[in-house]
Amino acid sequence: MSNELTDLRDSTLPEWACRPLVKQIFSAAKMLGGEARIVGGAVRDWITGHPIGDIDMAVNLPIETLASYFSSSDVRVVETGLQHGTITLCCADDSIELTQTRVDIETDGRHAVVAYDSDWSSDAARRDFTINAIYLDADGVIFDPLGGQSDLQAGRLQFVGDAVQRMKEDSLRIIRYCRFLPRFEKAGANTEMVNLLRDNAPLCADLSGERIAQELRQIMVGNEVAVVVELMRSAQIDCFTLGIKFNLLPLGIDKNFDEVLAQLGWLTGLATIMPVGSAKRLAKRLRLSRVEGRCLARLDVGVNDDELAKLNGPKWQQGAYYLGDWASMLYAVQSWRNLTVIDRRRCDELAAWMPPKIPICGTDLLSHGVDNGRAIGHMLRRAEERWVESDFTLKKAALLEWLFGS
C-alpha cells in the first residue's frame, strides 16, 4: 500500500501536521479521488499559539471507503462511530479520528442521522463553533468559510448559525461553550448567552456519562476553572447534567488553584466543588472506572482536622504514610473545602514523597514462634505504628526487640 501513496511536501505544512499517519490519510484520500483536511481544535490551537493536542481530520468521501482502504494496511481501523460517519485510525503510537464531510438530517440532542455531503462548506455549517470550523489541507492552505479566524482574533466565541439549534442538535455543546469561554471569549459570557444556556440546560440530562466526564476532565485541569464552574452553576448546567449544585465557595481563595489541579488531576477539582457525600452518585452518573470511583469516594470522605494539621506540620510524612497515594489530593481538597489556602510547597512534597517500606514482615514473626493468624496482623500493626512514630528510623532488630521485649 505504501508504494501507492503520493509523497507530500513537508515544507508547506506546519511540523505538527507532518506526522506519518496524517500524511497517510492525506495521500489515501487523494488516491481515492477525494480530499482530506485537518479540522477543529488542532487548527484552532495552532492559529492561536496554543499547544497542539489531538488531531481530527475530515474527508469528502464516504467513510466506508476509507475504512475499507486502511483495513488492508498496517493501520488499525476502529469503528468508533461508523453509522455517524466516523472512524479512528491507529498506527504505532498515533491515532486520529476521521469523519466524512456530512450534514445532519435529524438530531435528538445525543444522536444524529447524517448524510454524506462532499461540500466542505456544508460540513462546516453543521459544526459547533466558528473557531472549530477552520480546515487545513495537505498543501498547508487554510479554508475558513465561517470567519473563524476573525472570531479568534477578536476574541469571540460564537456558535455556528443559530445557537439554540446547535444546542438542540447536541447538548454537549452547552458544556463545551462553558469550557471554551475563558480561552476564546474575551468579553465573558453576556446575559443573553447565560439565559440561552439556562433555557437549554435541561437537554443535558440525556447526555451519556462518558461524554460529560470527558468534558469535566478537561475543564478541571484547564485554566480559569472558576470561570467555567461559575458559569455552569449560574446556568444551572450542573443540576441538569449531574443532579448536584456545585459549591462555589472554594473558588477564588487560592491563586494556585488552577496550577494545583493541573498537577493533581481532575478528580481533585471535582471533589472540591461537589457537595460532600455525592461521590457515589457522581461516579455512577459519570460511569467512572472502578479506580476513579474509588479515588473520588476517598476524596469525598476527606481528612479530619487532626490529620490535616499533621499534613501541615513538621511530621507530615507520618500523616502522609497512612493516606497513601491520595495524600496530596486529600490535602488540597480538604484545605479548599475548609476555605484555606494550601501551602504549595507542602503539596508538592506530598505529591513527590515515596513512603519507605517497613523493615519487618509476617515471616519475621513466624520465625519468632508467633502462630499464623490474627496475632500476626495485630503485632504487625503495632510494629508499624511504632516504626512510623520513630519517623521510620527503627530497623528490623529494634522493632523485633520492642515487640518481643528481649
Strand neighbour order, sheet with most strands: 3-4-5-2-1-8-9
Per the CATH scheme, the topology name of the domain at 1-160 is: Beta Polymerase, domain 2
Bin the strand percentage. Answer: 5-15%
Mind telling me the CATH class of the domain at 1-160? Alpha Beta
Q: Which consecutive residue ranges, at least 5 long each, have pLDDT under 50?
A: 1-11
User: Radius of gyration, Cα only, in angstroms?
Assistant: 27 Å
Q: Considering DSSP H and I runs of 4 or more, what fraction of the residues is helical?
A: 40-55%
Number of strands: 9
| C-alpha end-to-end distance | 76 Å
Query: How can the largest sheet be summarized?
Result: 7 strands, mixed
**Can you say what the CATH homologous superfamily of the domain at 1-160 is?**
Beta Polymerase, domain 2
Q: What overall geometry do the principal axes of the alpha carbons give?
A: elongated
CATH architecture of the domain at 1-160: 2-Layer Sandwich
Count every helix, treating DSSP H or I runs of 4 or more residues as helices.
22
The class by helix and strand makeup works out as alpha+beta
Mean pLDDT level: 91
Structure description:
With 406 residues, the chain is an alpha+beta fold. Among the domains are: 160 residues, Beta Polymerase, domain 2, CATH 3.30.460.10; 43 residues, no CATH class.
